[in-house]
Every structure is written in C-alpha cells, then in structure tokens.
Amino acid sequence: MKIIDLSHCINEQMPVFPNTAAPQLTPILTVAQHGFGETMLRMMSHTGTHIDAPAHMIAGAAGLDDFPVDKFFGLALIIDYPPCAGSIIEFKALQQMEEKIGRAEFVLFHTGHDKKWGQREYFGAYATLSAKAAEYLASFPLKGIGIDAISFDGIEVQHSPIHHILLGANFILIENLSHLEQVEGEYCLLSVLPLKYGQADGSPVRAVAIEMEVGI
Questions:
Q1: What pTM was estimated for this model as a whole?
Q2: In the Cβ-directed half-sphere of 215, how many Cα atoms lie within 13 Å?
Q3: Domains observed in the chain
Q4: For residue range 114-160, what is the model confidence (pLDDT) as tens digits?
Q5: Which of 50, 149, 163, 208 is least surrounded by Cβ atoms within 10 Å, i.e. has the fewest?
C-alpha cells in the first residue's frame, strides 16, 4: 500500500483566494517556556486544500457536518487533462469516459496547475468545466469532484455557476489538490476528511490518495 499526500502545506505566506484573509499561525505556548507547545490557528474555512460543502453556495443546503463520514472516502478516478491555461473541460471528453466515471465515487481532474502554486500565475487562467460537462457529472451518483486549481469557476466569473451545478447535486468539491501525477494508474482510494465543526460550509483537509488493489 502506498499513500500519497495531495495537500498543500498551510502557512502564513501561502496563496489564498483573492480578497480573503491569509491564515495566522501564532505560537501561544512553547516547550521552552511552558513545557509544551500550542499554536493558535486562525484561518478561513476554505484555506489551502479544502472541501466546499453545498452550504457554501446554497442557502439551507447540507454542511460538511451533516454528511456521514463515508462521504469523504471512496474510489476516485483521476482524469489527466493536458495543462492548458484557460481551457475548458468539455462534455464530449467526459462522455467518452462514461463507463469509468460510473465505477467511481469521486472524479479528480489532474491539470498540472498545482505546479504554479505560490506564483502569480496560480490566480490566472486555469482549466474549468463547461456547464454541460458539470451537468453531465452531476447526473452520476458521485460523492464529489476534485481539481488541482483554486476553483471550479474562473477567478473572474460572477455567481459561480459551475459550483451551483455540482453543489446542487449534493457533491462535495475538493479544490487546491496537488501531486496527482504521483498516483499510478487511473483509480485510487481517496481520503479527504474535514474538520468536524457545526454548520461547516467548508474545511481544510489533508487529502491523500491510497494506492492498492481496489478491484477495478
């Protein structure tokens, strides 16, 4: 069994979505002075590699704490999409993978955009789904969708239409994934366990891929 970390490290210098607060990690107690260390963590619920709950965009929809824990674990199909700034992942490309998508509980898009993490270009153009492609994915009984970019909608797009389509299907959305190229094969087991807090619209996660015999 091989476990691959798909998460970016949280620190005060990390990229955050425009106009949101950067995390603050403040040492409050230290081993030298107090005999043990504790750090005050202050961050937005959508910091770094994180999950969006339906409640993130849809009033009255489910928060992460409303889902059973198995919502955050399952068989993931990784779709390699050639890196191309501003490209659109179209319905026809996904339709050709219908059988493979039908076997999965998650679909993860590997676009290579995570290589721009920490650079200005990370907030530039990145691959996004067309509305028809999002609606197609929403027709499957998936648990969630993930991508190695900052959002499922373009950085300047108003009203987040792709989010609304996917969250409206009761999916969780995993954003800011990394290192998907390290996963061998098309399928892996995915774990994206969030913090368990009340009325959770989102949460940072330690996303990991588990390579093993998965019966595909």
A1: 0.95
A2: 5
A3: 2-11+44-211 (3.50.30.50)
A4: 999 999 999 999 999 999 999 999 999 999 999 999 999 998 888 99
A5: 208
